[in-house]
Amino acid sequence: MSLIRKTAAELGSMIAAGEVSSVEVAEAHLDRMTEVEPKVKAFLHVDRETTIAQARAVDTRLRAGERLGPLAGVPIAHKDIFTTRDMPTTAASMILEGWRPPYDATVTKRLREAGLVILGKTNLDEFAMGSSTENSAFHTTCNPWDLTKVPGGSSGGSSAAVAAYEAPLSTGTDTGGSIRQPASVTGIVGMKPTYGGSSRYGLIAFASSLDTPGPFARTVLDAALLQEAFSGHDAMDSTSIDAPVPSVVEAARHADVAGMRIGVVKELGGDGYQPGVLARYNEAVQLLESLGAKVVEVSCPSFTTALYAYYLIAPSECSSNLARFDAMRYGLRVGDDGTRSAEEVMALTRAAGFGPEVKRRIMLGTYALSSGYYDAYYGQAQKVRTVISREFEAAYQQVDVLVSPTTPTTAFAIGERVDDPMAMYLADLCTIPSNLAGNAAISVPCGLAEEDGLPVGLQIMAPVLADDRCYRVGAAVEQALESRWGGPLLKEAPSL
Amino acid sequence: MTMVYDEALDAFEPVLGLETHVELGTRSKMFCGCKTTFGAPPNTQVCPTCLALPGALPTANTMAIESTIRIGLALNCSIAEWCRFARKNYFYPDMPKNYQISQYDEPLCFDGYVDVEVDGRTVRIEIERVHLEEDTGKSTHVGGATGRIHGADYSIVDYNRAGIPLVEIVTKPIPGTDRLAPEVARAYVTELREIMRSLGVSDVRMEEGSLRCDVNVSLMPRGASEWGTRTETKNVNSLRSVERAVRSEIERQAGVLADGGKIVQETRHFHEDTGTTTSGRSKEEAQDYRYFPEPDLVPIAPDPAWVAELKAALPELPSVRRKRLQAEWGLSDLDMQAMHNADAFDLVEATVAAGAPPADARKWWMGELARRANETGTPLADLPITPADIARVTELVASGALNDKLAREVLEGVLAGEGTPDEVVEKRGLQIVNDEGELSAIIDQVLADNADAADKVRSGKIAAAGALVGGVMRASKGKADAARARQLILEKLGVSG
């Protein structure tokens, strides 16, 4: 089997055993990128020399007998929203085109410390606002299952890169579903860790109280290995949780749901959901039952209002977070011809540098925080958020995990929803509640929808700091389905 | 037209309000690890966080939180059991994030008071809140006449100051100060400054901007019950300016009201040179700051046991210390008040500690040196003379080596940088003439030159001896001991004093 088809765990073992060098593994993936990038367009920045140099450094460290983690020497695609000293960081926005950060994000730093080799920076919706990568200022990424479809978003470059075998692993950030939804529609695994479980330092902020870095991989174990490599307490992030985290890697190896209580969320699924999605989802629930889990229906009535609360909270925070892009210290500067005031240059720069969706959210958030509207919008949304957290807590009194479809539909066509923001926002209907509550949630592939042959994802949600449960249930589903399918779902994908 | 102060106060009663910003003297900034050294080369004390680079996050400085709680305790405030930072959103080039991390409706300390004494009267100033925030960068506007952004050719920004912890202390409205309003305002800021100094939380140097004051003033007609519209005067950067700004604003507002005009709620700027204020931006067009809880920082929840510990460990506060010193030194209320206003306590105390009698220490600092400080516009503490120098001079006077006049000359020499008091005495040859022979010879010469006066004294008009003593002092260039000279003159003329 060629190197690019191997899992990250396998590659890590082979490199550690000296069967293959990190440079060879990186080259295999770079070659794959040369071959398929023109079709997939998952990356915003690729620099072969920097990548090979990193791989060579890891090989040297390993040969010197340095003990690195299980992913040492394994290549990874990095979402272009994490700062990187040696590569530009743009958040897929014109306002940051060409910006080279003077510092590494904590996630970046930990990838390097674990010996992971960064292949390049992946495409996303501008500032992580979107569900399709169509809001990228640079280009749209295509779904490797069907190049006319979106790869999901905002972390669509990262999901496509892994699904297209350009990388065995990638990073993402999940604010309202930006890891789980792209994982679902590209047939891979994507995990949103507990909020505060992975550091936001160096992650360009969209909505501070929701943004969560997390892993993409083709297997549940690989995702767990990656999460373990970059998560954990960080003194640079005040909201980072300083508490021991249950081992997710151990959980991913413990694919056993016998005796676990699993709650089916009544409000997520049903009317408006694609029939093929519901069919695969229901089969997955039956599968869990057949594996010995106790399945019950749980009602969380406020989940239906989560989307609305989210679209007040996230834009409010973003309107403030994006104020720093003012042409003064970095990034784009428009109209500075010596005749204009600082205010005019700021306004011209922001007008030229932000795309329409970013502007829409800045305006929405500015309005929601305005004096006289704050209580009715932002304040009310925070109350809804509290109610949703309480409903989760109540549900977790009865069950160990909750499940739902990850998205209401499979991948939609490029261009289909660009003129209809509300339709675009609905892609995150099932994923948003976990963001509002700060819970852990994972998406694992659960088959192909009959009507379009595209991947469907199962979402498994767990309480704060119980990330291990997502992995344990996810691994059980993966194991059972792969034995049924005779291999991973991705082998059904057309070759590129 | 402005009104003369006394007339203004005949017609109106002022209500004051003061907002004071104190830069904390923490070694690192409020939300990052950058240094806070004053006067470092521009933009050398910066990092991703205080420059607001994409992705950078704040973490709160625990020492700054501790200092703020100690300030709150010293001002008799309640300390919040749980509170949050908030973002104050507005665009300005010297504010890197285009929002300031501050506190909004959940200040760390609230509902306190501080007593100040003015003119023998104790005035209680109620404190509404004490909260913690970060400073902005510092803009310098180049070109143009005003030094302000409008009309400037270009502006440069130094972000060294961006993110330095800033404590804002806000009073409740202060009615009832009447004619003493300017003095009360000054006494309050003086008291705050001393409290900060005794806590060791800030160097409170107004001229370096580590203590800044905004002064709110409104007037209401005498006998009215409803307060008038207030103005907020910014950038009042010395104690004297606090007093002048209040006075000037009272005079200006009284003039406007007396002419049937209306006070506009606005920000005004104080001008050190003219002692007057001019209009800044109107509050009518004030921005909506869109405050919301800072999502990048976890709430502050000070452990009550820790707060109790901080309270127990507070140092002696200035008002308590003043009472103690007054008792120890046996000085009058008026003397104490004058020293307080002149900010002379530390200096006098140090001088006493160096061995000077309290009355002498007070006399030199509040007399000769205060006059000198006023003339040159230097704070007393910044004069190039130490408490030890003063103590040495008082010692030389007490031992009879110097008289008052010579002592003044010694101080002048020390202030001129000629060295220690002993070195100045040596260099300028300022010892009292103690040689009886030399003095006797001078007296003989003076008696011979002033035979008329000498005769008058011989005939019993002892008062005429004054002119002869004066002659001796002149002839000795002031170095004679005047009392001894008088005694010798009378002896030589055969009359007893």
UniProtKB/TrEMBL annotation, chain A:
InterPro entries given in the database record: Amidase (IPR000120), Amidase_CS (IPR020556), Amidase_dom (IPR023631), AS_sf (IPR036928), GatA (IPR004412)
Active-site residues (renumbered): K79, S154, S178
Keyword NADP applies: no
Keyword Transferase: yes
Amidase domain span: 24-470
One of the GO BP terms on file: translation
Catalytic activity annotation: L-glutamyl-tRNA(Gln) + L-glutamine + ATP + H2O = L-glutaminyl-tRNA(Gln) + L-glutamate + ADP + phosphate + H(+)
Catalytic activity, EC: 6.3.5.7
Keywords: ATP-binding, Ligase, Nucleotide-binding, Protein biosynthesis, Transferase
Recorded superkingdom: Bacteria
GO cellular component: glutamyl-tRNA(Gln) amidotransferase complex
Entry-linked Gene3D superfamilies: Amidase signature (AS) domain
GO MF: ATP binding; glutaminyl-tRNA synthase (glutamine-hydrolyzing) activity; transferase activity
Pfam (any one): Amidase
Top-level class of the enzyme under EC nomenclature: ligase
Quaternary structure and interacting proteins, as annotated: Heterotrimer of A, B and C subunits.
Its job: Allows the formation of correctly charged Gln-tRNA(Gln) through the transamidation of misacylated Glu-tRNA(Gln) in organisms which lack glutaminyl-tRNA synthetase. The reaction takes place in the presence of glutamine and ATP through an activated gamma-phospho-Glu-tRNA(Gln).
Protein family membership: Belongs to the amidase family. GatA subfamily.
Protein name: Glutamyl-tRNA(Gln) amidotransferase subunit A
Species name: Nonomuraea deserti
